[in-house]
Amino acid sequence: MARTNGKLKTEPAGSRLYEVLKGIDFENRELIGKRAGAGLFDLVREPGGVYRCYACTLCERACPVDCIDIDYCPEHDVLPWDLAAEKAAATAAQPEIDMKPFDAVVARLREGSGLIEALHTTQETYGWLPRRALEGIADELQLPFSRIFGVASFYTQFRLAPVGKHVISVCMGTACHVAGAPLIVEAFSQEIGIAVGDTSADGLFTLQTVNCVGACALAPVVRIGDDDTHGRMSPNGARKLVRTLSRKEAS
Amino acid sequence: MAAATQRATRVNRALKHAVGAGTPTAGTGTKQIRICAGTACHASGRAEITKAVREEIEKRGLAGQVTILETGCHGFCELGPILVVDPSGTFYPRLKPRDVADILQNSVVSDEVVERLLYRDPKTDAPVAHEKDIPFYKLQHRLVLSANGKIDPHSIDDYLALGGYSALAKVLADDDPVAVIDAVETAGLRGRGGAGFPAGRKWRSCRANPGEKKYVLCNGDEGDPGAFMDRSVLEGNPHAVIEGMIIAAFAISSGVAPAEGYVYVRHEYPFAVERLGVALRQAHERGLLGEDILGSGFSFDIRINQGAGAFVCGESTALTASIEGHRGMPRGKHIRTVAHGLYGQPTNLNNVETYANVPWIVLNGVDAYRALGTETSKGTKIFSLTGKIRNGGLVEVPMGATLREVIFDIGGGMLPGRQFKAVQLGGPSGGSLPAENLDTEIDFESLTAAGAMMGSGGMVVVDDTTCMVDFAKFFLKFTAEESCGKCVPCRVGTTRMLEVLERITAGEGTLEDIDLLERLSDDVMEGSLCALGGSAPNPVLTTLRYFRDEVEAHVVDKRCPAKVCRPLIRYTVNKTNCTGCHACFTACPTQAVSGERKQPHKISQKKCIKCDTCRQVCMFDAIDVDTGVLEVAGRRST
User: Fold this and answer.
1) pLDDT tens digits, one per residue of B412-439
2) Rounded distance, CA A79 to CA B276, Å?
3) What is the rounded distance in angstroms from the CA atom of residue B279 to the CA atom of residue B456?
4) Shortest distance, CA A89 to any CA of chain B (angstroms)
5) Are the beta carbons of B427 and A177 separated by less than 8 Å?
6) Whole-model pTM?
7) How high is the ipTM of this complex?
8) Strands A166-171 and B458-463: what pairing?
9) Which pLDDT band, with edges at 50, 70 and 90, does B348 fall under?
């Protein structure tokens, strides 16, 4: 991009290339002095009628204003799958969500909050990141859904599936490790009957590990929800904790 | 000349105005109760203590005479919740709400101490009444942490009352950014985030680089597991960091380009985020941040950016990518961030602790700072001392203190009956040092020479119950999981190394595996794009260097000397000690324990999952752990 910007500076004003390049902010991938939607392009076909494009996605990646979005294989005259239906099915596979609180996220985005902040706000609202919300963010930021999903799936704190009522976070920091955190995780996992990262079928518990909650003097540490911290845990204590919570829910 | 004096008068008047705009909470009553509200004390129940104190004061009609101060971390996290009664400085650790009435009666209403609640010196068992006499505090040199535990982090007035923001006023009044950089460079302030790059040099090159805007970033993404000093500074004294950042911004912005700041904080630190937010708002209100700071014409603003749980985001280029809203992946650093950082602009990135050092240097002078520390490393360093140690918590010592002083004098040594085995420094990028290295002086160079690393300051002490191979495996597992996946040596290399270590801890390793580990380590360090991969093999290499016999015991004898690696150990009942109390029988999650009451019990090796529960619940030391039993496991199945 820097090279293209440099090119614009050395190009004599008024030349054809200058006219093409000016009005594009290459750093921010935005149009600043050009009309959007000025042209649509067609793909070149070979004499036999097949498209020459083999979807290398280079144009998608190189486009200075992110206007190309490759999402199907053009070898087929008709789409080999129904994209809209696929998307709808992916959304339908997730529980219904109320889109009303999502307006707050959009409002924050319009105030200029970053993508990661938007994802945090969404997760605070729903407890996880529903696909419909991610699509909403993509629409709002005018970015491909894949970009948003890529960011959401990169960071371990973002959850792409609904969580249980009690989120059990076992600290796996160094101090907790030497104090026996692996045994604690195992005890939780056996008592609830789920693997780390999963949610129990009754929707009561989600078991996860976190890197360090910074309460090393109390190792091993377990956090239930956001604020309920239990220090100096033992495997037996972990099992008892699960039983107490289940009993409380049952009554 | 006249213009310069006018400017100085204007700035000083503005500071005076800011100070006069409110009243500090600290030190207003005749008596003061300070309660630690750091994360660790919060987890051990400080909210109930505060509630009990408030109720008790209400009940006794002491409101107005006694100030209650909820401060940041006092540092002695092992003993939370902590309460200190001023002005005497009487220190009460590990409190229960029911003890509060006693303290108010004896320590607040009258001037005595409640002896049964005092801290006891682990060596002499004598009670120690005052905070300043406790060895843990007495032997430290608190420079950055000096205000932690003394002020309410929610109150800018407390910070101003301690002379806060006067360093900023001094810098703005002098109006000489280059002199600030000179001072920081001569003082020898080095980055506290790990690598120890001279902060002054970084500022100078950031200043020299042209750009439309300059960014000042504060790295509070303390991802290193077992380190929490940045959290404590942000929680206990956020204004010191803010002041340091404003001074840095003033020093690097060359007049033309405006500067903007971001603090990148981990989302796992809700208190730090909240208190920093309050501090920023207050600084704004007092004209210490934002447009035209203290009437000097210099403008600078700071925003909070929360991370989302990626260790690699502590790396400068990954951090900027994350702020920009991308996946936090580092780029090659042939062009440094001081030239091309956030949004392609010159960017200065320092750690929380580094910024917190800056106001002190400006106020107390370069020479005072240089007087602390060693030839190459100046000042102090905060360590979070954790692990199998008696006095865990935050320790600030001058550079050049030895590991022995920190661990045995301040930290109080090992838990009763345990042997020191190793100290791990620098987290996943550092290494473990054995007892022979205890007299190593702590500075950047000597730790690196020993194979460890200063890192952000995590210091985890382990004893003879920790298996060094398993410990190295823990760190490698961490880096393998946290590898962003961009470059192959790190992504694949760490995974392969982890597989080798898993083989060794399962008793399936060979001597060739050890050679393979060394070779892979070289490749990963050589080929990785960023420091995460470049230092990932360090824990393994130091383990091979200092604890090779332990690794070989796993490989050759199929034995885990620390009795940790599960495939190599088994649990049995010691028939002489077992009283048949049934405690293990009840606690065993797999019903592997059998036996009648008052008769020695038995553990079925088929059912035993080696979860350690029986050993932990046994009151009579009747559960034995054997190792080196792989080859006989088939024969002796009971």
Assistant:
1) 899 888 999 999 998 899 999 999 999 9
2) 52
3) 24
4) 27
5) no
6) 0.87
7) 0.86
8) unpaired
9) very high
